[in-house]
Design a protein that fits this description.
Number of strands: 4
Number of helices: 15
Structural class: alpha/beta
Shape: flat
Helix content: 55-70%
Radius of gyration: 23 Å
Strand order of the largest sheet: 2-1-3-4
Order of helices and strands: HEHEHEHHEHHHHHHHHHH
Strand content: 5-15%
Distance between the termini: 23 Å
């Protein structure tokens, strides 16, 4: 069987496992959302493979090319198909932060055979701020740090956290249109930064966020106590204000925050390295050859982000590992 088809359950896989010869590794099917997710989950699940256990990562299929979380779970949660031989590995999106205030969130949280990212999506892990300096090195082969990217993202996160909390509140009470995710994203995107003055972009961001917060407080004063309480609850869920970027929409984070932050930094580092090559070259041909070799060795930002695995040091990733370990221990 090379892919999971609708209707197959954990019980089916368990029965198939029993038919295997003694000494054969037990097989657990891990159901993921899309092609792009396979490598991420393989890296995690590889840590738990052994002489007696193996995972088969599969994509959703019901006879059509449908991908995504809804497709991945529709044939499992509703039919109660998950179990000791079949698990689902999916992005949390907002379902974790909803904490059962929606039907989707309740089904998601109540099933112990669902392994979730806790961050909004896999893209958030790939943009883990403590790993982005290493991404810069991979892209430019230059280890200088003209901007402290980790510090920038910490300040960014602390600025947007209060507004992010409002957004979570409106989604919990089912009033998405009052303050949609798209509207939040429009406010908390960043301008293309100046490498010499990155704080300017943060000041512009803070101004926009402050204006929107003031509007919220004027328009919905009755919600202020609930929003303040939610801030404390989010903290108990592991959401720290300095890491808010891990919980916003993943595609938005890469396209309208990380790319806009890192592309000027990468351009600066590449220019710096090329000037150094020009200064050290003995003659024009050597300079040309060295520049050609350098440019050939560079990696595009999008590719480096996709291949980034340094997020494994994060608290959220360790929490995922603990969930898998507990699940296996209970089998």
């Amino acid at each position: 069987m090379n892919r999971l088809v609708q209707g197959i359950s954990s019980q089916y896989i368990e029965a198939a496992n029993r038919l295997r010869p003694k000494g054969t590794r037990r097989r657990i099917v891990a159901y993921v959302e899309s092609y792009q997710d396979v490598a991420f989950w393989r890296l995690l699940l590889d840590e738990f493979e052994s002489d007696t256990l193996t995972f088969s990562i599969m994509l959703p299929s019901n006879g059509r090319l449908m991908r995504g979380k809804k497709s991945a779970l529709s044939g499992c949660l509703d039919a109660n198909n998950l179990g000791k031989s079949m698990i689902a590995c999916v992005d949390s999106d907002y379902d974790y932060l909803m904490q059962g205030t929606t039907l989707a969130s309740r089904a998601f949280l109540d099933n112990k055979y669902v392994i979730q990212t806790y961050t909004y999506a896999i893209e958030n892990y790939q943009c883990y701020s403590a790993s982005l300096n290493q991404v810069c090195v991979q892209c430019t082969l230059n280890d200088n740090r003209p901007v402290d990217i980790e510090a920038f993202m910490e300040v960014y996160s602390n600025i947007v956290f209060p507004l992010f909390t409002w957004n979570i509140h409106f989604y919990r009470i089912g009033r998405h249109s009052d303050f949609s995710m798209q509207e939040l994203n429009n406010v908390i995107s960043i301008d293309s930064i100046s490498v010499r003055e990155p704080e300017k972009s943060l000041r512009h961001l803070e101004s926009r966020v402050s204006a929107k917060l003031a509007w919220m407080e004027r328009t919905y004063p009755e919600m202020l106590p609930e929003v303040e309480n939610l801030k404390n609850e989010l903290y108990t869920l592991g959401v720290e204000s300095a890491e808010t970027y891990l919980y916003v929409q993943g595609h938005f984070l890469f396209e309208r925050v990380i790319s806009r932050l890192m592309e000027p930094v990468l351009a600066f580092l590449i220019h710096e390295r090329e000037l150094e090559i020009g200064r050290q070259a003995v003659h024009a041909q050597q300079r040309q050859n060295e520049l050609s070799s350098y440019r050939h060795a560079q990696v595009e930002l999008a590719q480096a982000i996709r291949e980034n695995t340094h997020y494994r040091a994060s608290r959220q990733y360790q929490r995922m590992r603990d969930d898998v370990a507990r699940l296996i221990a209970g089998f």
